[in-house]
Amino acid sequence: MTTRYLWQDIHDELGVSQPDFDDRPLGAFLEEHAENIPDNIALRFFTRTFSYRELNTEVNRLANVMAAFGIGKGDVVGIHMPNVPQYLITLLAVSKLGAAASGISLMAVPSELSYQLEDSNISVLVTLDQLANNVLAKIEQMPACLKHTLIASASDYLIPQAPIPPQLEGVNCVAYLDAVNAANDRFNQHATHYNDTYLMQYTGGTTGRPKGAMLSIRTVNHVHSSGNVYAPMVVGQEIALSPFPMFHVAGVSFHTACIRYGAQCVLIPDPRDLDHLLEQLLVAPITRFAAVPTLFQMLISHKDIAKVDFSQLRTAVTGAAPLAGSEREKIEEVIGRDKLTDNFGMTETGPTYISNPPGRIKAAALGVPLPGADVRIVDVETGTKAMPNGEPGEIITAGPHVMKGYLHLPEESAKAMREFDGKVFMYTGDVGYFDDEGYLYISDRAKDMLIVGGFKVFSVEVEDKMSKMDIIERSAVIGTTDEKRPGNDVVNLYIELNTTGKTLGHAQVKEDVILFCRENMAAYKVPKLVHIIDQIPLTAVGKIDKKALRG
Question: How many other C-beta atoms are found inside a 10 Å radius of the C-beta of residue 368?
Fold first, then answer.
């Protein structure tokens, strides 16, 4: 007997249902578009455009380069770049090879880059010249797994001039453009299985170091198709733009969906450059847009926003942080009514499994589960008891959108993915509740998780790093509301000094702490405020009492 979910009436009202599975890899969709819509624009980057025929050719060349490096099924290729053409070309080449891709944050410091290279066993890295010189080359001991690095330039496809690769001991560093231009332009999609890992997305967590969430081909495809039910993309007739970086799961999902549906994908390498973003919006009327709430707010305040034609816009997606009702109204005054929607999810769910349907939005809610997503609310204490509607509990979800598990971490995987009611559910750590129509509301963020600029900061990861400082006895991280950026937190670090630390002045301690943080963690994780206190409060069982710190 088929289960009828609480939110099924909403799906019926909107005429949506679970799409049929199409388990082809992304490279197969590209080959189809290169055959059927070869002259359609696939990518736009500043003034440079790539047709689907041209894009397929570039992808084939890179696939041949990587095949010569020994990349095949089961291998992982690292991508350390902003949103430039080479990023999508690499994602597609990796797909054609049947391998997996792992995006690396542009904010990663050398130690974080080294950790991800080693943890994923990355043998080939595609990166930019500036990043190769300023981050990769500063790794103290290069991971033995890294054998080849392709060095690209942001201007490769604008003003072709291959950069001079750095010299790294034990690593074959070659210019991306030289290697690709010398390669054969024919390559056929390799056979894949729907459960093959396609994306190795790293996420923070409650156990310190980031974890590699293994997302399968089916997971990626399902999130594309289920997220496309409310206003389906028409193959070959869409122009899509998002400043979400592709190293973030939201960015890679958006941009790969564009390729799947044969859209024109407008690449924005620097989301902070609003003037360039406006320039691109003025070139052609977009039909799809996605950004964090903060960027929406800045965009609608731009002096030239009235010049942008939003008449063709069908959906605008926001996520990564909540959007206040008043802000939603201001945005809709600019882009039009019934176009703005919220997506909610996490890296481990591909990412989206909840969406607020355009035209049926409840502004205070996250939305309703997408077709194919089973979502339940269970008690926070044991995770074994279903909670009634209106009662908060931990949000859990099951379905094809859920990851395969964490790389090399069977215990962490088993803790996060547990059986409930005959299915394996992802226990998200988020606390929320359903209303009577099946709309989901968030009550609390995942334990000890902050949002900074749309990125997640896990307190324990920062605290784990701080334990390496020889002046700190213990530390605790909490978030406070960022009054200047709605939906964001300010990272507050509380530290208790040990005997050595107490010999230093507070000013010196704070200076040393900030310097250490900048050298050992991405910029958005660095504490904004450092508080030195006599003693970190503890609970009766000896755990850090963050409730006491929050006052």
Answer: 29
- List, in sequence order, every residue forming a beta bridge with 444; answer none if it has no partner: 431
Q: How many helices (DSSP H) and strands (DSSP E) are in the chain?
A: 17, 27
Question: Torsion angle, CA of 263/269/271/273, rounded to 10 degrees?
Answer: -120
Burial (CB count <10 Å: 0-12, 13-18, 19+), residue 306: exposed
Local mean pLDDT, 10-residue blocks, the chain (551 residues): 82 90 96 98 97 98 98 97 98 98 95 96 97 95 96 92 83 95 97 98 75 97 91 95 94 96 97 93 94 85 93 89 72 92 93 91 90 94 93 94 96 96 94 94 73 82 86 89 84 92 92 94 93 82 72 71
DSSP character at residue 399: S
Residues 174 and 311: their CA atoms lie apart, in Å, by 45
Sign, CA torsion 308/247/135/148: negative
Q: What is this structure's pTM?
A: 0.86
Using CA atoms, how far apart are residues 360 and 423, in angstroms rounded to an integer? 30
- Structure token pair of residue 346: 């996490």
User: Would you identify the CATH topology of the domain 450-550?
Assistant: GMP Synthetase; Chain A, domain 3 (3.30.300)
Give residue limits of the domains in the chain.
26-263, 450-550
How far is the C-alpha of 245 from the C-alpha of 106, rounded, in Å?
A: 9
**In angstroms, what CA-CA distances link 529 with 118, 482, 490, 507?**
32, 12, 8, 13
Residue 478, beta-bridge partner list: 492
Q: Tell the residue number behind the tokens 């503890």, with chain if given.
A: 538
Q: Where are the beta strands (DSSP E) in 356-471?
A: 368-369, 374-378, 393-398, 405-406, 417-420, 423-434, 440-444, 449-452, 455-458
Strand partners, 497: 472
Q: Is the peptide bond before 166 cis (omega within 30 degrees of 0)?
A: no
Strand bridging mode 417-420 / 423-434 = antiparallel
Contact predicate 145/123, CB 8 Å: yes
Label the pairing between strands 315-318 and 374-378.
unpaired
Nearest to 66 by CA among 179, 164, 178: 179
Structure-token match 């942080």, residue found: 321
In 109-187, DSSP assigns E strands to 124-128, 148-152, 172-175
Q: How far, in Å, are 90, 294, 438 from residue 392 at the CA level?
A: 43, 28, 13
**CA-to-CA dists, residue 78 to 81, 148, 334, 386, angstroms:** 10, 10, 39, 41
CA distance 228 to 16: 10
- Pick one of 3.40.50.980, 3.40.50.720, 3.30.70.380, 3.40.630.30 as the CATH number of 26-263: 3.40.50.980
Q: Any idea which residue has 């093959």 for tokens?
A: 196
Distance CA 173, CA 195 (A): 32
